[in-house]
Amino acid sequence: MSNSKICESADKVLQNFINSLDDVETSHHRMDSQKIKCNFGQLGICCKLCANGPCRITPKAPKGVCGANADTIVARNFLRAVAAGSGCYIHVLENTARNLKSLGKTGGEIKGIHALDRLSHNRIRSS
Ligand code: SF4
């Protein structure tokens, strides 16, 4: 994987770390392969909330079948995306907290300690 492209990141330490990985596919790799976006989707003016859609807002069709305009559709899409994304990461955080608690109770072993070590050393050197 180290030869495959990844997206640019503001976090250069993380970007360099991901670039150094072999045979690992991350969201940074998939973001690059998904960089060609649908214009309606990217602007948030495509709605698929009900079976009357998908509705796409254009100057000739400024409202969806239900009457929702671009502002309504963008706001609904944004709120749904934030709720879904937050839900996903809260789940990741919950799993991490449970794993740490379990490790603390059992004195278990941290998997991937070398990757963690390498990442933390890179962060210390860059700060
Ligand atoms: S704009 Fe209205 S009619 Fe069209 S898909 Fe969305 S909710 Fe359904």
From TrEMBL:
Gene3D superfamilies: 1.20.1270.30. The keyword Lipid metabolism does not apply. It is an enzyme of class 1 (oxidoreductase). Its EC number is 1.2.7.4. The gene is cooS. This is Carbon monoxide dehydrogenase. One of its GO terms (molecular function) is anaerobic carbon-monoxide dehydrogenase activity. Keywords: 4Fe-4S, Iron, Iron-sulfur, Metal-binding, Nickel, Oxidoreductase. Pfam families: Prismane. One of its GO terms (biological process) is generation of precursor metabolites and energy.
